[in-house]
Here is the input.
Amino acid sequence: MIYSIVGTEKNGREKAYKTLLKDKVVTDVIYNENYLQAEKYIDSVDLFGGEQIINLVGFMEKQESRDALIELFPKLKDSKNFFIIDEPFADANKIKRLEKYSEKVFDCREDKEGEASPFPMCNAFAKRDKKAVFVEWIKIKDISEPLEMIHGALWWKMRTIWEDTLNGKKTGFTLEECENFGEEIMKASMDAHRGEVGLKEKLEEVLIGV
Here is the structure.
């Protein structure tokens, strides 16, 4: 059977996992780059013949893992094992698809109606639309939500762009640019934690550079 968690709101995510796991332990956590490993758990059992809990993370973010997951949906739904599909950055279309096969979707999105969201900014970044990036950045840079959430969303988007570029897909970014942007985004968080620079200022430098 399938349960899904969408969104990045920390307390909601923690509550969802607590509700699903209770006193149980996740058997395996599979990220999208290792998507081929998911199928083997459909009919597997633990050492005592009991059910297993498999956490599938970010499968909807990449084309290859998304296609594989969509194909596996019916089998995962009918399996005696528990599959927790974790999609922090799922959009409305992906959530609708998850709802079709999930016993329940835990909605932990921070971008509720009327609230600012980092995702339009990240999408504009992927399109290299500097004007739209700046407009969306102005909307969210001073909101109460932690900057770490904005940083995480931007890193996730950059990681997807990077992987697509490596696979020969047209992204609007060269491989060298992916490496440079990826390095700058990662350094932004590390430098901020060391107190060398403010995370907001560093993120703004990265965004302006697109």
In short: The helical segments are 10-21, 63-78, 92-101, 119-126, 130-140, 147-166, 175-193, 199-208. The beta strands are 2-6, 28-31, 53-57, 82-87, 104-107.
